[in-house]
Amino acid sequence: MGIRSRFMIIMAIIFGIATVGIGTASYMFSKRNALLEAKSKGELIFNYILATRTFYSKKQRPLIMEVFEEDRFYPELMSGFVITRGIFDDFKKNLSGYNFKQATLDPLYPPNKADEWETKLIAMFAGQPELETHEGTMERDGETFFYLAKPMKVSGKDCLRCHGDVNDAPKDQVEIYGSTNGYNWKDGDTVAAYVVYVSVETALANAKKGAITLYLIGAGCLLIALIGIWLFMDRFVVNPIVRLSIKAEEISLGKNLEESVGIKQNDEIGALAGAIERLRMSMVRILKR
Ligand code: HEC
Question: CA-CA distance, 190 to 126, in Å (whole number)?
């Protein structure tokens, strides 16, 4: 294999590795940033939801309950869950890519029913009572989401008045939600989890696009560099060496001795050409004598 081919192969390998390395690193960084951004957005939304919830249950609800009779129940006024769900449904209309669910094993309101993945999440919280929050990524219908979750436990009479024995529940509630689901919960049980979902699909797709662009630019540069190296090697290395070897061959045979070497380069090959030129002149002198 010629010098040029060998050199080209080495350069192609080095450039190839560099391109793949840079593209892959860029993808990993973008992916990490996408997840970090999703996390901070998720935390923002989650904390806001929890804050509205706390304000409602500490400040508003006691006043509301004073106004109405014990047995009356207006979900939009008296249930933090209804309020949170209603506000988030409106919020979602203007901002896609976010979701919030009060995922529950056996809910009063059917859309709150935990799906298979959420059921496992709730079981995990039930199995690790010290766990206050949990976060990570998950896939649903081929889409990747960052999620943040918080368990919800039944805390005595506060909850069992409405989620315990159906006969004790406010009549209005039974009328609205029926009497089959959302009752007979047990004190201390982990029955539900708040879960915020933030889609990272667009960000991940952008990260992929960025990496592919880098690969393509790298491949283009590689091609241009290889063509440049090829031309340079041809002009300054391979051609002169071929000519010099022919010339040296001729000198050894005593042929074409009148014709000078004719290569003037300011480098190692130029030095070699100079030496062969001096060899030719010595040969000419010796033969003349
Ligand atoms: C005054 C009655 C009442 C009380 C007290 C009450 N809830 Fe509820 N709860 C409801 C109603 C009504 C809903 C349905 C909300 C909706 O329509 O989204 C609900 C919904 C929920 C949900 C969402 C799943 C579902 O059933 O739709 C969870 C979880 C929940 N409650 C837990 C609790 C916990 C824990 C407590 C105690 C800290 C509690 N609730 C106290 C009436 C009550």
Answer: 5
Residue 22 has φ and ψ, to the nearest 5°, of -65, -45
The answer to whether the beta carbons of residues 256 and 250 sit under 8 Å apart is yes
Tell how far the Cα of 93 is from the centroid of ligand 1, in angstroms: 24
For residue 75, the one-letter residue type is P
Q: Could you give the CA distance from residue 120 to residue 138 in angstroms, rounded to a whole number?
A: 12
Cα–Cα dist 240/40, whole Å: 63
Determine the distance separating the centroid of ligand 1 and the alpha carbon of 11, expressed in angstroms: 67
Q: What count of other Cβ atoms lies within 10 Å of the Cβ of residue 193?
A: 25
219 residue type, one letter: A
Alpha-carbon span 37 to 110, nearest angstrom: 32
* Ligand 1, atom nearest to 110 Cα: 27
Which amino acid type is present at position 3? I
Residue of the nearest CA to atom 43 in ligand 1?
162
> Which residue is associated with the tokens 């010339």?
247
Cα 110 to ligand 1 centre (Å): 12
Tally the residues of the chain: 289
pLDDT tens-digit profile of 161-208?
889 999 988 888 899 999 999 999 999 999 999 999 999 988 888 888
